[in-house]
Amino acid sequence: MIFEDQCITHKNFEDCIWFHVSQGFDRKQKFIDILCQITMAGTKDISMMTEEGLPREICERLEYRRRYFVVLDDVRKKEDWDCFKVVFPNFEGSRVLVTSPYGNVVDRNWKSHNLEKLSNEEGWLLLKINAFGTEGCNDEVLESLGKEIADKCNELPLALVSVGGMLRQRRNIADWQRVAENPFLEINQDGQIYRDRVKMTYNDLLDEKLKNCFLYLACFPIGHEIVVWKLIRLWIAEEFIPTLDEQGYALEAEVEAEKYLNHLMDRNLVMVKKRRINGQIKTCCIHNTLHEFCKSEGAMINLFHVMDERQILDENTSSAPHKNISTRRLCFHSCTQRKFDDLIKPYNQRRSLCPFGKHIRSLLLFPSQNSETLSFTKEELATIPNTFPLLRVLNIEFSMDFDYEIQPDELYNLHLLRYLAIKFINLDSLSKSFKNLRGLETLVIETTARTLHIDGGILNMEKLRDVHTNTSLQLPPFPPKRSTTNSRGNGIRTLSIISPTSCTKEIFRKTPNLKKLGARGNLSELKEPKINLLRYGSLKNLKLYGQYDKVLTFPSGFLDGLRLKKLSFFGTFEWKHMEVLSLLEELEVLKLEDYAFQGENWELSNHVVFKHLQYLRIGKMNLRIWKLATENSFPAL
C-alpha cells in the first residue's frame, strides 16, 4: 500500500496524513483530527478554535512544511470533497489521494484510476489472509473450496474480506461447502460488513424511485446482460420514472431514465457491458455480489418476489413475507416446462372467479440455461390472463411453441398491459383482437416466421411508443378516409422492423414523431411518393435490410430533407451511390454491413464530403480499392 511504503512517503513528503471521511461526519472534528496529525498537539488545545479558523490554521501549517501527502478515504459526496480541498494548498511536490466508491465525487480535471478486479490468485490470497491470518491454510480441501469461493466473488475485495472474516471461526468442511454454494447469500446477511456498506450506498441514492430502479435489476437472472432500451421501457412501464418536474412541467421519460442509469453507473452500482458508438450504454448488468442484496431488499420492501426452485405459487406466495400486503411483481429465473406446469396448476385446480394472482402487476419469465422451448395448448396459454388478469408488464424471454392454427388471442385480454415482450415459434400474424391492448406502450415480438402480419389497427393505439420485431412486420393498409382524419399513433417513436411495402405515406403521416425506423425486404419498394413524408418527421436512426442477390439504386429524392444521425445498410447498392449519402449533413454513424455495397472500387470525387461522420464501419464485401479525392472527405472521422 502506498501510504505504508516508507520508501515513498518518508523520502518524499514531510507530512503524511490519513483520515477516514465516510458519511455523516462532523466537519469541525475532522479538521481537528487533521491538525492534530500535523502538529502532534493535543486535541484539547485545538478544540477551542472556531470551525472557520481551523482550515486557515491547517493551510498555514502546511504552507510552512511545503510538501505533504494526504489520503482522504471513502469520500461519498462532492460537497464533502469541496469542503476539504480548500484546506490543502497546491504546492509542487505535494499529493492528495481521494478514495471513493463513486465516480463523480472529485473534479473532472483530476486524474482518476478505476481499480481493476483482483486476479484469481490475488483473490484467494486476500480471502486466505482474512480467514486464516498469518498461519495460512494447510488443508487442501479448504483451499480448493476457498479458491472456488474467491472465484464466485469475482475477486471483489470487499466481498472477499467479508467472506474471509465470516469463515475465520469456521474451519469445518461443511461450513465452507455451504458458503461455496452461494457466497452472495452469506455476505448479504444482516450484520455482515459487505451488506452494511452496500446498504449505506443504497441509502445514499436520491429518492425512492431511483432505489426501485436499482433493486429492479435483480428481476433479471444473476449475470444476465441487460439490454438498456428494454430496461428503460420496463422502468417506465413500472412507473419508476418521474413524469413531472418540481414545477409541474412534463418530463421526457426516456431522458430521465437515462439519467437514472448514468447515476447508478457513477455510483458503481451498474456495470457497463457494451457501449454504442456515441458513448451511450447499450447493455449493462449488476455485479453478482450486488444481485443478492437487490433480491433480498426488493422482497423485504415488497417491490418484487423471485420464485425459487421448489416454490409453488399460491395465496401464501402472493403475499409479502413480512407485510400484510400483496406482492406486485413475480420473477422466474429458470423457467422450464415443469415449472410452468407448476405455475398454472393452482389455477387449474381452483378456477375461482377471484384468482390468487389478482394482485400481480408484473410477470417476468426467463429461460433455464438450456433455453428450452415451452409447448402450450390454447387452454394453457389462457391461464396467464386468467391467473393474472391485472398485468401491466408481461416479459417472456423463452420461446413458446403451440399449434400453428392457434392465435395467442388469450393474451390480448390483458387490457391493462403496458409492456409486452414475447417469443413464438412460427407466429406469422396478430389477429384483430390485438387492438384490445389499448394501454400498450411497448411491444417486443420475436418469431421464427419470415414475416409477421398485423390485422388490428396498431397505429390507432394511442399510447404505443415502441414496436420491435426481429422479422418483417406487415402493417394493414389504411382506408383513404381514415388516413387523413385519424390522428392517433402520434406517440410512436420506434418502428423496427417493418416491410418496405408498409412504408407508405399514410404510415408516416400517422407517426410524425418517429425517431427510429427499420425496414426489411425488397427495398425497391421504397419509391416516391411512398416515402416522401419521412423528411417531415424527426427520424434520426434508419436501418435498411435488403436482399443480397439484388442490386438496387437509390430512389429519386429518397434522402432529401432527412436529418439522420445514424444509417445502417444491409444491401445491396453500388458504390457510386455513396455520393448521395454525403447529402446527409448531420450523419454521424454509417454502418455498411455485409454486402451492403457491390463493386471492387470506391472512388470519391472532390465535392463529396461527409461533414460530420464520426464512425464508418465496412463489413464483408468485395471492395479492393478505396480512393479518396481529398483528405477532407471525412473531416470528423
Protein model, in words:
The chain has 637 residues and is of the alpha/beta class. Among the domains are: 6-98, Rossmann fold (3-Layer(aba) Sandwich), CATH 3.40.50; 120-195; 208-288, Orthogonal Bundle (Arc Repressor Mutant, subunit A); 565-637, no CATH class. It is built from 20 helices and 26 strands. The chain has a 16-stranded parallel sheet that branches. Strands 1-2-3 form a three-stranded parallel sheet, sandwiched between helices. Strands 4-6-5 form a three-stranded antiparallel sheet. It is globular. The two termini are 43 Å apart. Residues 319-325 and 481-486 have low confidence and may be disordered.
- Mean pLDDT comes to 82
Distance between the first and last residues' Cα: 43 Å
CATH superfamily of the domain at 6-98: P-loop containing nucleotide triphosphate hydrolases
Count the strands?
A: 26
Q: What's the number of helices?
A: 20
Q: Provide the low-confidence segments as ranges.
A: 319-325, 481-486
Radius of gyration: 30 Å
Structural class call reads alpha/beta
| CATH topology grouping of the domain at 6-98 | Rossmann fold
